[in-house]
């Protein structure tokens, strides 16, 4: 497997001064409120597993030390790994045929079917996201995965949602820096014709 490597950062076109990176102040005034993925915990054990995995990725991203993708994949249980797409070469060929046979305007529309995240793509998107990973914190009746963008665009929140969901937690809302919105789960997931729908 290829190593989990961070690309060389390009010069940010829309950088945000450090003093303006924080979205707002916390409700109790004790500290900053960062951009966040809010989620309902699936229990203490899955929450601890998510936190441990998040910490591994955060340390590597902060220190720019590459991690071996196979070591990170080995951290996950079979159930956690089953969240991710794992297409065979024949299924990749089927996906490519579907993609290239779809007219261009439809191909780039929000309704276009796309495969579920695969593990390597999720890691790559997090690793190359132009943001700092902050922490996983309790927040009222939910928990939050906090991150701090360096500028906009910063790579989006899809990979962070996938990280939370693969441990069985239910995402409820996202503040991506433009304001809080309730999360709507994806329904446009492409599945190979050879696999039964679940």
Mean pLDDT: 84
Instruction: Report the major sheet.
Output: 5 strands, antiparallel
End-to-end distance: 28 Å
Tally of contiguous helical segments:
7
Radius of gyration: 18 Å
Low-confidence stretches: 1-29
Q: Which range best describes the helical content: under 10%, 10-25%, 25-40%, 40-55%, 55-70% or over 70%?
A: 25-40%
Question: SSE string, helix = H, strand = E?
Answer: EEEEHEHHHHHEEHEE
Give the neighbour order of strands across the main sheet: 6-7-4-8-9
Structural class: alpha+beta
Number of strands: 9
Fraction of residues in β-strands: 15-25%
The shape is: globular
Walkthrough of the structure:
A five-stranded antiparallel beta sheet has the order 6-7-4-8-9. The protein has a two-stranded antiparallel ribbon with strand order 1-5. The protein contains seven helices and nine strands. The protein is of the alpha+beta class and 198 residues long. Helix 6 crosses helix 7 (158-166).
List the topology elements.
Layout: E1 3-4, E2 24-25, E3 32-33, E4 35-40, H1 44-63, E5 67-68, H2 69-75, H3 78-81, H4 89-101, H5 104-107, H6 119-128, E6 131-139, E7 142-149, H7 158-166, E8 170-175, E9 180-182
Antiparallel strand pairs: 1-5, 2-3, 4-7, 4-8, 6-7, 8-9
Helix pairs in contact: 6-7
What's this, in brief?
Helix content is 34%, strand content 20%. It is built from seven helices and nine strands.
